[in-house]
Structure formats: structure tokens, C-alpha cells
Amino acid sequence: MMQPDLFGAARDDIVLSTGALFLPGFAVAEVVTLLAHIRTIAVCSPFRHMITPGGRRMSVAMTSCGRFGWTSGREGYGYTSHDPDSGQAWPLMPPVFRELARKAATRAGFADFSPDTCLVNRYAPGTRLSLHQDLDEGDMSAPIVSVSLGLPAIFLWGGPMRSDTRRRIMLHEGDVMVWGREARMNFHGVEPLPPGNGTCRYNLTFRKAR
Q1: How many beta carbons lie within 10 A of that of residue 62, not counting itself?
Q2: Do residues 145 and 113 lie in contact, with contact meaning Cβ atoms separated by under 8 Å?
Q3: Alpha-carbon gap, residue 34 to 31, rounded angstroms
Q4: What is the rounded average pLDDT of the residues 135-151?
Q5: Cα–Cα distance between 165 and 112 in angstroms, integer?
Q6: Mean pLDDT across the chain
Q7: Model confidence at 81, in pLDDT bands (50, 70, 90)?
Q8: Which residue in 1, 32, 23 sits closest to 159, CA to CA?
Q9: Domains of the chain
Q10: Which of 60, 66, 68, 204 is the most exposed place for a label (fewest CB within 10 A)?
Q11: Rounded to the nearest 5°, which phi and psi values hold at 206?
């Protein structure tokens, strides 16, 4: 069961649940810089549609930067130190990425967060992300920091069970979400991206893989 969009107009920090904080507009000042770095990262490690272990093509296009990158294939999900498409190390994480993630995590009560990976997701209109938990990280004590860029999207925020009630949260460019501790295993996803005044949505997801 879903609840209506709870966060249409407010721009103050919003507690979603214990351990989870929504920071509307937190990254607005860095948008242009973040997008420029995404373009550079994609030159080194292009976006690609990965295959699930079950053989399905993911609709979200992905790449990574940092010490590790997230991958998916017939062999399963996980992190690698090298881009399997090129055999080269993943692009370095830009300092502005790391500092933004650190500041957002600190704001949410997670001091000393030092991400070693950033997943960069690209959503075209019609693309969705099914409800899921983030289970592949070696350090589950570290939070997840998620930054929205480009087209707006409706984020689904659930609980520790897939059947739990989901909240629908409209995310705009520059919005940031942070979750950890009690909320670290909450299910979450993205509704199909509607067309808008732009070409796509990007999502930066900072994690501690190792």
C-alpha cells in the first residue's frame, strides 16, 4: 500500500524514519559541477545497461567511480576494483563528490563517512528502479547517500519488509537523501520516470563497499 506524496512544497530537512533524512535542495549549488564530472566519468567508463543474474537487461544505465564500482551479470551482483568492460581501474571519485557525500552524511548524523564508491545511474523517460535493498556492501554500518540531478522523479521509500507501506517522495534536482542504521535495510525504488523539460535523470549513490 502506498501513501500520497507527502513532500510537495516543504524544503526543510525531513525525517523519513529513524536513521533516514531527506535534504531538499542540499546539492543545488553544486549541480553544474556535478554534471560536468559525470560527463568526464562517462568518457572513461561509459554508461551501460547491465544484465541481472537472471538474464534480464536493466533499464537504468550505470557506471561508477571511486576505488570500487558496482557490477551485475550472470555470476551475480558485487563490487570490482576494475571496470569489466575496459579492464581499467574505475575513474577516480572527484573531490567535490566525496565532500558533498561527507557533508550530507554529517548533516544526517553520520560523522566521518568516507565513501569508496559512487554509483552513477542514468534514467531515461520510462525507466524505473524496482523496490530493492542494498545488500552488496561490506560495511553495512555506513550510510547510503543519494543525490538527484536532472529530471524530477518519484522515489519510493518503504520499510524493512517488501510488503511495508511505501511513501512517494518527489525528488527534484539537487535533493539529497541519506539513510543508515535502523533504516539501512529499508526497501526503496523509483517509479517510471515521466517525460520532462530535459533528457534524463542522474542519480549519484555513495556507499562504503569495503
Answers
A1: 20
A2: yes
A3: 5
A4: 95
A5: 32
A6: 93
A7: very high
A8: 1
A9: 2-207 (2.60.120.590)
A10: 60
A11: -95, 135
